[in-house]
UniProtKB/TrEMBL annotation:
Organism of derivation: Arcobacter defluvii
Transmembrane segments: none
Keywords: NAD, Oxidoreductase
Protein's name in the database: 3-hydroxyisobutyrate dehydrogenase family beta-hydroxyacid dehydrogenase
Domain (6-phosphogluconate dehydrogenase NADP-binding) ranges: 2-156
Classification via Pfam families: NAD_binding_11 (PF14833), NAD_binding_2 (PF03446)
Active site: 167
Gene3D superfamilies reported for this sequence: N-(1-d-carboxylethyl)-l-norvaline Dehydrogenase, domain 2 (1.10.1040.10), NAD(P)-binding Rossmann-like Domain (3.40.50.720)
A single GO molecular function term of this UniProt record: oxidoreductase activity
Length: 283
């Protein structure tokens, strides 16, 4: 079975490589065609063409606006050809917009699975992502064998929008940990403690976390090529604050990390990996 894939940014390319490595045949669409011209996959010119050539299509886009464009643009996914096809949306969407995507696709006879991804490039390449799915249970069960090829941990939450809300909650941990680790690293350097040694000690001490394991080398090398960008974490924490406001709940620990990542965006560093927040504390 051929799998369609829309959105070949850093994460999208890593997931495509993983699927290809385990024997899946891919057909891809990316808005920026130059970015994918050297990739070894069959390429199409429109999202609609993917519907004609595949029964399951992944979307891995930046935000809900990008998803909406893919659905509603000329020769987009919202057309007669979507009937009976399954759309697996890996995007971290707005928790309200994702409800509209469920309704729009399902009402036209398609099957929408909300399926945000936890993890970035490194675990994606090894098939060790975490995914949380919301949508029709029978659709989830049908595509679970495909999800198992990209994810080590798979969870199902039946109520639409639940997976997206859980992803935003998870990213509060992610952003908060990254800010704390970055500040601890810079503080250790201010005490004339070698950065590599400080990170090694944090890694067996209070800093133990998947975040530290994933970002230690980036902090040492100060290589901030993006696996998960400042723009992305800033967007997600902003959406989480909107959710808290709607729930009439305070969200104390999200405020400072969100504003620090906003500062990175303001400094023109939005496209850097979110570990580059270290630069704020170092400088």
């Amino acid at each position: 079975m051929k799998i369609g894939f829309i959105g070949l940014g850093n994460l999208g390319q890593a997931i495509c490589k993983r699927l290809s490595d385990v024997g899946e045949t891919l057909i891809v669409y990316n808005r920026n065609k130059e970015k994918i011209e050297n990739l070894p996959y069959e390429k199409v010119d429109t999202p609609r063409e993917l519907l004609l050539k595949s029964d399951v299509i992944f979307m891995c886009l930046f935000d809900s606006d990008a998803v909406s464009h893919i659905l509603s643009r000329e020769n987009g996914l919202l057309c007669d050809e979507i009937k009976g096809k399954t759309i697996i949306d890996l995007t971290t969407n707005d928790y309200k917009d994702v409800l509209e995507f469920h309704d729009a696709i399902n009402s036209m006879g398609g099957n929408y699975l909300e399926n945000p991804v936890f993890g970035s490039v490194a675990p994606a390449l090894k098939g060790e992502l975490t995914v949380v799915s919301s949508g029709k249970e029978e659709i989830f069960k049908n595509v679970k064998p495909i999800l198992e090829k990209i994810a080590k941990e798979i969870f199902y939450l039946p109520v639409p929008s639940s997976a997206t809300k859980m992803k935003l909650i998870n990213n509060l941990c992610l952003g908060s940990f990254m800010v704390t680790i970055a500040e601890c690293t810079a503080m250790a350097e201010s005490c004339d403690i070698n950065k590599s040694k400080a990170l090694e000690i944090l890694g067996v001490g209070g800093g133990q976390s998947l975040v530290l394991k994933a970002k230690t080398q980036k902090l040492i090398d100060e290589d901030f090529s993006a696996h998960f960008s400042n723009n992305a974490i800033n967007k997600d924490l902003h959406l989480l604050q909107n959710l808290a406001y709607e729930l009439k709940k305070p969200l104390f620990s999200a405020a400072i990390p969100k504003e620090l990542f906003s500062k990175m965006k303001m400094l023109g560093k939005g496209d850097e990996d979110f570990s580059s927040i270290y630069q704020l504390f170092k400088n």
